[in-house]
Amino acid sequence: MLLAETAAGPAWSWNLITDVQEMWSFPFMVNAFRAGTIVAVVSAAMGYFVVLRRQTFAAHTLSTVAFPGAAGAVLLGISAVYGYFTVCVAAAVVIAAVGWRGGGGGADEAALTGTVQAFLPACGFLFIALYKGLLGGPQSLLFGTFLGITTSQVTVLLGVGAAVLAALALIGRPLLFASVDPQVAAGRGVPVRALSVTFLVLLGAATAEASQITGTLLVFALMVIPAATAQTTTGRPGTGLALAVFLALAATWLGLTTAYYWPYPLGFFVTSYAFAGYLLVRSGRTLHTWLSRTRAPLLYKEATA
Amino acid sequence: MTGLLSALAPLDQPFLQHALLAGTAIAAASGLVGHFLVLRAQIFTADALSHVAFTGAMGALALGYDLHMGLFGCTVGIALLFGALGRKARPDDVVIGSVFSWILGLGAFFITLYTTSRSTTNGHAGISVLFGSIFGLSAGRASAAALVATAICLLMLLIARPLLFATLDEAVAAARGVPVRTLGFGFLAVTGVCAAEATQAVGSLLLLGLLAAPAGAAARLTDRPYRALALSALLAVLEMWAGLAASYAVPTMPPGFAIMAAATAVYAATFLVRRPAGRGRLRLRTAATGT
Amino acid sequence: MLHPMAKARTAAEGTVPPPRAPASEPPAALTVADDPVIALRGAAVRVAGRALWSGVDLCIGAGEFVAVLGPNGVGKSTMIKVLLGMLPAADGEVRVLGARPGQANHRIGYLPQRRSFDPSMRIRGVDVVRLGLDGDRWGIPLWPFGARRRAARRRIEEVIELVGASTYAYRPIGTCSGGEQQRLLIAQALVRRPELLLLDEPLDSLDLPNQSAVTALISRICHQENVAVVMVAHDVNPILHHLDRVLYLAEGGAASGTPEEVITSPTLTRLYGTPVEVLRTSAGRLAVIGQPEAPALHTDRHADRHAVGPAAGGDHAAG
Fold it and tell me: Residue A126 and residue B254: Cβ atoms within 8 Å?
């Protein structure tokens, strides 16, 4: 709070239209909004399936490995974008090859994923130690930045995002079937294993994309929280998917706007908005079940009395 | 003899002594806790706690409290919260994911608050919390860490058998009078303390490896629960020593990376070992002739 | 048709009974009335405000094999939980092994409604059995020698042999088949020489040969070692010949007695409040047919799945 006042930042006026006009008069903010929108839509759509398939642990692993990818790319002197995509997709293939069977499934796979997830950041740490320059610090790699997103970066994001969404739309229905009831789906001739591999690769690409905006540690937030909120609210796949996308967009836009006025990391704001929504829905639901539970015996007593 | 002496010469250096003292105890505790994390399929919980440790430490620094207070308070508190959120003190993956991704965001907020509000050298505090600073431990800190870790070890040994029962056979254990729910909470709290301790050694981003890799390796090497428990602790200690030695020998290599590399190498090596599938029959024959 | 007791005895012939510790159990001569293992008088239970069953009277003596039958959602598993003291009885009196429920659980062997072990669970079957013996003690076993440890090891080997699991007890339990896992878990329930066995659908997910083998095993333990057995079952046919008594739960009411007394058209008609007909095939199999829809069809598991009980609330309501 104190900091926000002392820092020479733009001032918030209560005229929303002028605020937005002023904010969007900076090309970097426009690019940030474009990139944020793409990332939010793609992450929420992927996240819906992540939550449905209980693959949150795998998703988190993929987001963690994005960091050494970027750090390695910086060390080699190439764009971090290539690092993100290469390492995330490779890690997705590895996890799929080992045969991940869903969150908390096999103890062995969990141990393996955990080891991979710790070893790769350790490599990232080594790369940073070797690079020594600490280019902006690893903090922006870990926690994200929305400054300096170029138009060409947005184009890349749009291309990859569209490809991921198109692929997801193509496999969406059988993937839903395979996620809900793998055995029956396999019996119907749905290629469950191939779908699971494809999904993980798509997840890798989506993670790599989102990492550049939210930072590698917070991608996971954009994927999991809106989808979890949506699935707590509704059981219908179509509505849930739409709701997840909407929530992610809302969190991202609100987060970007707040981060523009306050000199704190974007990731913090985005996760806070998303998590506030989640808490709201969860507590509403808990209240609802609690009410119905306490009301049931009353009704019973009335009936017996 | 002289070769041995010269190899042990670096042990005269106090920073290495402290690292060895704290590292050994922390590794043993992590190995014991990790064994049950793998068995209970709660690795993701540990993962979440390790990231929570980061937020706790940064929060304490940013608000001007003692770093260790923030670490322990945050990890134990969140561990108990996870227990409360889940059925029978076994939290759901999605709940964990949602909670801890927000807490990470909070960590990002604290790190910014800390680095911008105080002198520029503070930038390294975040890095040392994320990746560990075992060579920077003071004598007092090292012995405190060793004490806490030893307490964790003793506690784990005390609850090992009922916890194993509750893990494998929850309903039967509950019927037999094992306090399944309390054990679940207690174990989560111990995991929280262990995560906070290990953060000081290998950092919050890497401590998951110390929990998962030795336990995973031990589970691949033996099917006997108590032997696996001992093996897991032993492997963790050996990996810690190997990592410290390697990092001392090659100064550009950060200790966190070296320890993780050793742990990963041992775990990878267990995939080359054939699983002890045939031994069951052999034992069976001796058991059959014995009776 | 042979008397169930006699039939069970003939089934058990040819197997060598393992040595028993005679001090740990009441003598077989005691009659049911003197020292009932389970005594329920006017017992009722409510779950979330809903009365599941009420007015249940039951008295089970040592060495009796009793089945709890009834349609889905009627509270069969709840009965087991009440006997274990995990759920309080809303009404009436419940005594288990001469104490309040939950007070004598160390003398009870319990087999919950089974989920199978994950294939990646790399713990040997023998370790799972051993947890049944000492799993509730604090600390870890440190000293592998000594008379107590030898006795424990001998007991585990003995009980594994009793259930016929010797060939796979030293394999990781995740790699065992459903029937093998079930036998190991029965061994776990038996390892402390319980005086009462509470089995919740132990035949579920077993094929027909395994069903009859496991039933024969339980019956043998029940009658030879004088252990009272309460088994929740879906289907009466595989266990019918071994049963001493049946407790039939249906829509709030209950009936107990020998299978011949309970599974009859008049009794079930009274319980359900609609006409129910019981057919007996020449092979001794029973079929329960209701009007206009079959309330529960006790022929085999697959037929049972298609039948809709009058109190159909799903299995989970019961568990």
Answer: yes
Q: Is residue A257, in this structure, part of any structural domain at all?
A: no
- Determine the Cα–Cα distance for residues C290 and B172; give it in Å rounded to an integer: 37
DSSP state of C225: T
Q: Which two three-digit tokens encode residue B254?
A: 């950060």
Q: Tell me, yes or no, whether A249 lies in a domain.
A: no
- At A113, list the tokens: 């994923």
Q: Show Cβ contacts of residue B214 under 8 Å, excluding neighbours closer than 6 positions.
A: B27, B30, B31, B34, B232, B233, B235, B236, B239, B263, B266, B267
Nearest CB to B168 within list C131, C167, C171: C131
Q: How confident is the model at residue C19 (pLDDT cuts 50, 70, 90)?
A: very low
* Cβ–Cβ gap A221/B215 under 8 Å: no
Query: What SS3 class is residue C18?
Result: coil
When scoring C118, C123, C173 by the number of chain A Cβ atoms within 10 A, the one with the most, hence best to mutate, is C118
Which run of H or of E encompasses C294?
Answer: none
- Supply A242's token pair: 């739409």
- pLDDT (tens digit per residue) in B138-148: 888 889 899 99
Q: Which stretch of DSSP H or E encloses residue C274?
A: none
Nearest by CB to A300, which of C50, C119, C121?
A: C50
Contact B173, B179 (CB under 8 A): no
- What CATH number was assigned to the domain covering residues C4-318? 3.40.50.300
Distance between B271 CA and the closest CA of chain C, angstroms: 15
Q: Distance between CA A129 and CA A71 in Å, rounded?
A: 10
What's the longest Cα–Cα distance across chain C?
Answer: 66
Which CATH fold topology does B13-267 show? ABC transporter involved in vitamin B12 uptake, BtuC (1.10.3470)
| Any domain includes A282 | no
Query: In terms of Cα–Cα distance, which of B252, B248, B242, B190 is closest to B214?
Result: B242
> What interface predicted TM-score (ipTM) does this complex get?
0.77
Q: Which amino acid is at B236?
A: A
Chain B, residues 163-192, CB within 8 A of chain A, namely none
Q: Is the peptide bond before C71 cis (omega within 30 degrees of 0)?
A: no
Task: List, in sequence order, the alpha helices (H) in chain B.
Answer: 2-8, 14-39, 43-63, 67-85, 93-117, 123-131, 139-168, 170-175, 180-202, 207-221, 225-249, 255-270, 279-290
Evaluated on CA atoms B227, B232, B235, B236, the torsion sign reads negative
Cis peptide bond prior to C292, omega within 30° of 0: yes
Which chain C positions have a beta carbon within 8 Å of B289's beta carbon?
none
Give A222-272 pLDDT, tens digit per residue.
888 999 999 888 878 888 889 999 999 999 899 888 888 887 777 788 889
Angle between helices B225-249 and B14-39 (to 10 degrees): 150
What is the rounded CA–CA span in Å between residue A247 and residue A257? 15
| Separation of alpha carbons C172 and C186, rounded Å | 17
CA nearest B51: which of A60, A149, C66?
Answer: A60
> Global pTM?
0.78
Contact present, A53 and A178 (Cβ < 8 Å): no
Copy the structure tokens of residue B53: 């440790």
Please check whether residue A87 lies inside any domain of the structure: yes
Spatial separation of the C-alpha atoms in residues A243 and A228, rounded to whole Å = 10
For residues A193 and A208, give the distance between their C-alpha atoms in angstroms, rounded to a whole number. 23
